[in-house]
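re: that chain from earlier
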Amino acid sequence: MNLKDLKYLVAIADTGHFGKAAERSFVSQPTLSAQLKKLEEYLGVTLVERRPKQVQLTEVGRQIVAVARRMIDDGEQIVALARSNADPFAGKLRVALIPTIGPYLLPRVMQKIRKALPRLGLMLYEYQTEPLLKRLKEGEIDVGIVALPVDTDGLETQPLYQESFTLAVPNGHPLAGKPQVRLADLTGQTLLLLEDGHCLRDQALEVCSRIDVRESDDFRATSLETLRQMVVAGLGVTLLPELAVDAPFGTQRGMTVRRFAAPPPMREVGAVWRKSSTRGPVVEALCEALAKGAPRPAHQV
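^ sequence. v structure.
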């Protein structure tokens, strides 16, 4: 038994498919199948139930996978510790961002990150907040970029920047003619929100909790881009983070964006990582590059 065999088993658990697990593991399917069979023979148990077009773990297989994940993470920590001792700012760093941050922040900061950390390779992922934190605690990623606050049990956090919310309305909407808007202007409006699981949904509800605003019962979006289209269609108004409406993204044809009068509603974006991580110095250097690359809120400019 070795870590490579355990990685094959975890890949099968994650994909539920021999072919996809082999592709993810960069080996042929026959190789992966043969190694899994050898692992089962060595352990003396059946780890997976083999079905046409589907693979399912046995009960003991699920228990072994849980331990295998920890062993794999420990093995990677050993390698990372050895490499960081030689060069703490080299190697790979697994970074996950939530969907309402990643596409809008990364284009602004990647050049600064490359300049500040030229020997560091970033592996980028996108998850909603809860799955991101789960993967972070299980060691699947090294650092997350999220909207704060979050559950910090066993985790370190560092604020990076604050981001204003803006109001998006259809062209021709009464609020489209105002140079600035106030939260009170949303009274009686139909508010379009992301589906459950997106922290931006909860933030928007919190921002609007003090006024009489109606949430749309018929539509919930899966992304900010879907929200834009719903606004253009005249289904309601929505709150968008400042980075999602600034260049190079701009506004959507048929939609008007208005900024809030000071002080605008805001959210805080920050980094989160495990307290036990051996990558602390490089995470802190990444945070510094992210903070420098992130723009200041419009009311501070």
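The CA atoms of residues 194 and 201 lie 5 Å apart.
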